[in-house]
Amino acid sequence: MRPVTVDVGVPSANSRAEALAVVRDVFYLAENQIPFFVLQKIGELTALDGKDRVINEITEYALDLMRGQKYKEAAPAIMPPQPTVPGNLLHLLHMHLKPAPLSAPPAATGNDSDQVRRWRSATEYSFAGVKFKGLSMKEKGMRCILDVKLNGGGGTLEVPRLDIDNETWRLLRNLVELEQRNREAVGSHVTAYCVFMSQMACTTKDVELLSKRDVIVHGHGNNDEVAKCFADLCKGIQFDPDDPECNYLQETCSILEKRSRSSSRKWMHG
C-alpha cells in the first residue's frame, strides 16, 4: 500500500514560533523532564525501527538547537568508545557543552594565598592590562561556549561569543540546576562557566566593555538589564572555585589573579 501524504500547507510564522516555544520548553525545563528511556520505549512501540530513529532524530535536533543558539559548533563526544545515554532531554543538551581538555592538568595549590575564591570584573582585568577577544563559533577549533582560554602569554582572554536572548538565562540556570543535583554524574563545568561570566559581567560597565570586545551580544536594549541577569545567574548555588575538580577554569582564574595583583603593586609603587 502506498503511503498517504497529507498536505497541511506552510505553517504561519506564529505557529512556527509557538511550536518552537513548546519544543524549547520540553528541552529546557528542569522540572517535568521526560526520562530518556521513556522516549526510547515510545520509539519501540511506534515502529519497527522506532527506537533508533527516535534517538537519532532527538539527538540531531538537540545539536541543531544548540547550534541555533550559537552555544556550540562541533558534535560532542557522546558516542563510542563509551556511549552515554542521557537521563532526560535537558541532560542531552548538557552533553553538548563540554570544554576542550586542557593540554596539562592544573597544578595543585595548597597555599591559601594562591586561592582566588572569585573572579574579578572585566573592567578590573582590563585595568590590569588583560585584553578580551570574542570568538565566533565559526572560527577554527571552536567547539562550544565553554572553551575559554588565555593566549598571548596570559595577556589575552579569548572567550567564545555569548549570544544572549530571552531563552539564555532559563537554559543556563536549568543546566546549572541539573549539575547541582547530579554533580558526581554530570560534572560542574556549566556551573563553572556561569560563575565566570556572572562575576566578570556583573556591572553595566563590564557588560559595555565585553560587548565592545564582542564577548557578549545582546538585544535587551540596555546593558543594565544584562548586568542584573548575570549578577543573579548563580545566586544560591554551591560551588568551590578553588577546586580544579569542580572548576575547569581554576588555573585560568589563578593566572589572571596573579597578573592583577602584580599590576596593583606596580601601580602603588610606580
TrEMBL record:
InterPro entries: DUF247_pln. It comes from the Eukaryota. This is Uncharacterized protein. It comes from Triticum aestivum (Wheat). The lineage of its organism: Eukaryota, Viridiplantae, Streptophyta, Embryophyta, Tracheophyta.
